[in-house]
Sequence to fold (382 residues):
Amino acid sequence: MNFTQPVPLSLYVHYPWCIQKCPYCDFNSHTLGQDQEKMYIQALVRQLEQTLPDVWGRPIQSIFFGGGTPSLMSEAGLDTFLSQARALLGFQPDIEITLEANPGTVDFEKFAGFRQAGVNRLSMGVQSFDDEKLHALGRIHSSDEAYQAVEAAKSAGFDNFNLDLMFALPNQSLEQAVQDVETALALAPPHLSHYQLTLEPNTPFYKNPPVLPEEDLAWEMQLACQSALSEAEYRHYEVSAYAKNNQACRHNLNYWQFGDYIGLGAGAHGKITQPPQGQIWRTQMPASPGGYMNMIQSGDMGRQQSVSDQDAIFEFMLNALRLQDGFPLELFTLRTGLLLDSIDAQLDLMKFKGWVEIEESSLQLTQTGKTYLNEVLQLFLP
Fold:
């Protein structure tokens, strides 16, 4: 691997606790127990200090607090972490700092505290505006609380926020799916994530599946909701992401463009490119909050693994092909350190099948290619 330019760098911070775990969720989250926030933040900062030699001199362009339910953090705790992170790392002047929020855990005062601490973007897990569907999903908030959370966020000064919505919910009709999107649009979010409920292994829903809409109906829901979003002038820029006024999520774009990111916290993954060594490293922290804190306290850096050429190719395509407008071909070399001719055979086959268009040094999947994305990705498997 030969890297000619620095790779953009972001920071992901995992907050592993929830009030209760939703039956569809396969993220690393744990039921909220005794207050461990102070110890956990100390571990996050210590891990960041241990990571500094690998990223020295590279400014952070975005931070994302995910979970779990990061909005359970105290305003003071969040401020403490960001203050120390800012002292350790160089933040770009226009840094994007996103925090995931559960509508049932926030109010104006908390949003105002997060805003004052430096958070400038929220991602709210609404999922649905139908109370019956929220109950079926095991969510702790009601539709009224979702409305209140959005208004509280706006009042606290957040003009950049995302609403998460799911479709193909238990016993959901086409009309109900579209109504959820139209209700969200009435709240004028700059960004909306819209994705299908899937049954992930090791979740209660996977063990005891609810009655979900048939595949054909789920497809109708997706098309109808996409149409509503298009009419409202939301740009569909990634498989499940829509934005207005150029307010695409910069943090997620860095993932999809195969940028680097430090992964802090229990269960967090990271990706760090080291140009002098011609290597990409993956990092992974233990999933248990207690195990994570004990490991960091002992000075252990967690699991690290070098990414092979073939894995880099697959991971790049797995992310970049999600972008609806494609990507410039030079990005492949800039992010993987490999020459484009290493994937000539796959590109030729994609063109033969009508899955891809390559024009003016850029690559974009055709509508057929987007429909058969899984088959496209299989061409790049190691």
Notes: The longest helix spans residues 37-55. The two ends are 16 Å apart (CA to CA). The mean pLDDT is 91.
